[in-house]
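Minutes, project check-in
Item: structure for the 325-residue chain
Input as provided by the requester:
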Amino acid sequence: MKLLNIRLEVMQTIEKSMGGLLDKYLKPIEKNWQPSELLPESNSPEFFEEITEIQELAKEMDYDLWAVLIGDTITEEALPTYESWLMDVEGVDQDGRNGWSKWVRAWTAEENRHGDLLNKYLYLSGRVNMREMEISTQHLINDGFDIGTGRDPYRNFIYTSFQELATNVSHRRVASLSKKAGNQRLAKICGIIAADEARHASAYIDFINRIFELDPSQAMLAFEDMMRKKIVMPAHFLRETGDAIGGLFGHFSDAAQRVKVYTTQDYIDILDSLLKQWNIDKVTDLNDSAEKARDYLMALPGRLQRISERTKVPEKQYQFKWIAI
């Protein structure tokens, strides 16, 4: 009960400055980009010509890269799960009256554009079995997921800091590879989504920095706990028709590794960047347990690096039901 009370006090303290944080990390709706700006206009004389170009370029995209793009789209569209999860965090007012609930709703509203944009692009591409993709999306929302955070805001914001950085990497790499393949529209789409993810990551990283200032020992222990469990991305729970929960993740992960969109090395690099951004080696006023947690965290990138060097990525391509041709 004492720890719960402290966490609530910390959340209430940060909440007092939430107005400024909302302005810093989110954009006014009327000034923000919208999916329609990045897709062919249906009333334009060039509409069908642009659709033909999208479909021709889609046919030329690398199979693994295309599979990763579809999987990323599905996870972006599972927002009902993410919003309901964050609205249940300790300190967030489920009735929507405090700054934290305003943050969750506003963050969700920005994120919602990502799935809308990617879904429409994939539909226009002509290379996606939309029914199979939609089945996977419905499964992901219906199944929900347990990422080991409970209702603890410390663990949840450590998770979202990591997760937003990871999605930034994934979308940014798809953008870069699409540009190299001559697909300028897809490169722009994924690049603008990646920029959103980077901005959101900065917000969650800021939240944890403030938590470290107010409750350093428990923040350190929460960080250690999440890294011992390993950060599980929403894609971990992907499945296709006939699969059990998570039945598709191995194939999706292998495809991402082969095309170097998101790799084991990226996981290590993100961890290393968070250690630096949260100044883990310089945090003061830690109790004995938290000091041991810090030792574990500081040594973890090196340990993971040694494991990574022994890991081999399967070469065989899996035939995703999502991909039509």
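Outcome recorded: Residues 2-308 form a domain with the Ribonucleotide Reductase, subunit A fold (CATH 1.10.620.20).
No further action items on this chain.
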